[in-house]
Write a structure and sequence with these properties.
The chain is an alpha/beta fold. It has 16 helices and 23 strands. It has two domains: 3-247 and 455-477, Aldehyde Dehydrogenase, Chain A, domain 1, CATH 3.40.605.10; 251-436, Aldehyde Dehydrogenase, Chain A, domain 2. The chain is globular and about 85 Å long. It binds nicotinamide-adenine-dinucleotide (NAD).
């Protein structure tokens, strides 16, 4: 069976002492294996990145950007291969994989602006004959640890910007769908990136713990579930590293009584069920304000959902694919059952869909649950499946309180025609990314991405301007060149 190895110092390395199956979630079969890096292999990757740093750091930013530009062209030229690899291991349909890849490429395009992004700040004559400037220097070896649900895009939130800022990188992708990430990393070599600048180790906790504790690693970017994000942040910080750890989510959409209901339903379909709900920005709760809005929403959703098809990635007419593993399928089914047991109404039940020809696949159909209340386990947990829960409230204040009280604060959205209500909502809601009639308000590459509360541990958001700050450290230089023969007198007071 094909074993996906590691990319260290420009070479594929196969430390396959420990391996794990990689499944095709549509067939339910293990079609590949992934090597799980040992401590020694991970240290080898860190050593390669450390050795490559001095030369890469001194490479002019424009040359680093040119490599990124060639990389962007290679990503576009090889898009079909990348999307197929994503489909085979993640299960998402080709149109959805293409969207993910495009959002990743936009981060590469932003990274191509490196010379502009790294220009720094300059002030002339801050004192008599004294000039001062701040420059943004690279950190050294930085690490990225990424989740299964965006194997192409999320790594590209990290390494393009880290690299153009002059750092070298060790990436630890998800062990569940490693092939598209590895393929992408190999394109960097083809784009002209020197060996050792970008390294990939596949693995699990054993390799992650090395990245969190090895003193040669200066910063860690993480994206994944909240319990792991919390562990990563605590461990990396305790080991003196800069860390940003993005966690899980429970994203609510408020549906106001004045909303264009047909539009809201269309938007909710994609945002709740696209990619099987396995998106950290998926809308998993619709909060209907008033009974009329609640009744209209549920009946229109029910009707619209009858047209959705779940199936294999290879058929582009399918709306969404399977969930990632058999265990995850069971977990999602369990949350639907627990909502039912707790008294909610399962209006559309996707627990056991029939997908002809893919009977062993990890499929869950689109599910709609009405009359969910905040005390239910299914409301509190991040289900991460194609399940939309409807909570009914009387007022917008009640809806906002629900969102503000939830432990997660990644994304949210309001559907309304009332500009004043929308403005009040965006001003007061305790969530990092807000949509107004926009269901998936994922910031573009030249803004930054991040949630609030237990959806992000750390100060700086991912990519965009915050990404540049995260991957550089500021140095401020103050300079005077006295005219020859001129000597300053002694002053014991603080310079002003
Ligand atoms: P996960 O937390 O299980 O895994 C993420 C990474 O952490 C993987 O590389 C994995 O190998 C590693 N890991 C897992 N357990 C570990 C442990 N005990 N010690 C050290 N490392 C460990 O997440 P996942 O299931 O791959 O991804 C889904 C989760 O990611 C969801 O919660 C989703 O909301 C979240 N996510 C968040 C964002 C965001 O931007 N906030 C984006 C995408 C996904």
């Amino acid at each position: 069976m094909n074993v996906v190895g590691h990319l260290i110092n420009g070479e594929m390395v196969n430390d396959a002492a420990r391996t794990q199956d990689v499944f095709n979630p549509a067939t339910g079969k293990a079609e590949k294996q992934v090597a799980l890096a040992s401590k020694q292999t991970t240290e080898q990757a860190i050593a390669a990145a450390e050795a490559a740093f001095p030369e890469w750091r001194n490479t002019p930013a424009i040359k680093r950007a040119r490599i990124m530009f060639r990389f962007k062209e290679l990503l576009e030229a090889n898009a079909d291969t990348i999307c197929k690899l994503i489909g085979e291991e993640h299960g998402k349909i080709s149109h959805d994989a293409a969207g993910e890849l495009q959002r990743g490429i936009e981060n590469v395009e932003f990274a191509c602006c490196a010379p502009e992004l790294l220009k720094g700040e300059h002030s002339r004559n801050v004192g008599p004959g004294i000039d001062s400037w701040s420059e943004f220097q690279p950190l050294g070896v930085v690490a990225g640890i990424t989740p299964f649900n965006f194997p192409a895009m999320v790594p590209m939130w990290m390494f393009p910007l880290a690299l153009v800022c002059g750092n070298t990188f060790v990436l630890k992708p998800s062990e569940r769908d490693p092939s598209s990430t590895m393929y992408i990393a190999q394109l960097l070599k083809e784009a002209g990136l020197p060996d050792g600048v970008m390294n990939v180790v596949n693995g699990d906790k054993e390799s992650v713990d090395v990245l969190l504790t090895d003193e040669r690693v200066k910063a860690v970017s993480f994206v994944g579930s909240t319990p792991i994000a919390e562990y990563i942040y605590a461990t990396a910080s305790a080991n003196g590293k800069r860390c940003q750890a993005l966690g899980g989510a429970k994203n609510h959409a408020i549906v106001m009584p004045d909303a264009d209901m047909d539009n809201a339903v269309n938007q909710l379909l994609g945002a709740a069920f696209g990619s099987s709900g396995e998106r950290c920005m998926a809308l998993s709760v619709a909060v209907a304000v008033g009974d009329e809005a609640g009744d209209a929403l549920v009946s229109k959703m029910q009707e619209a959902m009858s047209g959705l098809t779940v199936g294999a990635y290879s058929d582009a007419t399918n709306d969404f694919g399977p969930v990632i593993t058999a265990a995850h399928k069971e977990k999602v089914q369990g949350y639907i059952s627990s909502a039912e047991k707790d008294g909610a109404a399962v209006v559309v039940d996707g627990r056991d869909p029939k997908v002809a020809g893919y009977e062993d696949g990890f499929f869950v159909g689109a599910t709609l649950i009405d009359n969910v209340t905040p005390n239910m386990e299914s409301y509190q947990a991040e289900i991460f499946g194609p399940v939309l829960q409807v909570v009914r409230v009387k007022t917008m204040e009640e809806a906002m309180k629900l969102i503000n009280d939830h432990e997660y604060g990644n994304g949210t959205c309001i559907f309304t025609r009332d500009g004043e209500a929308a403005r009040y909502f965006s001003d007061h809601i305790q969530v990092g990314m807000v949509g107004i009639n926009v269901p998936l308000p994922v910031p573009v590459a030249y803004h930054s991405f991040g949630g609030w509360k237990r959806s992000l541990f750390g100060d700086l958001h991912a990519y965009g301007p915050d990404g540049v700050r995260f991957y550089t450290k500021r140095k401020t230089i103050t300079q005077r060149w006295p005219s020859s023969g001129v000597r300053e007198g002694v002053s014991m007071s603080f310079p002003s």
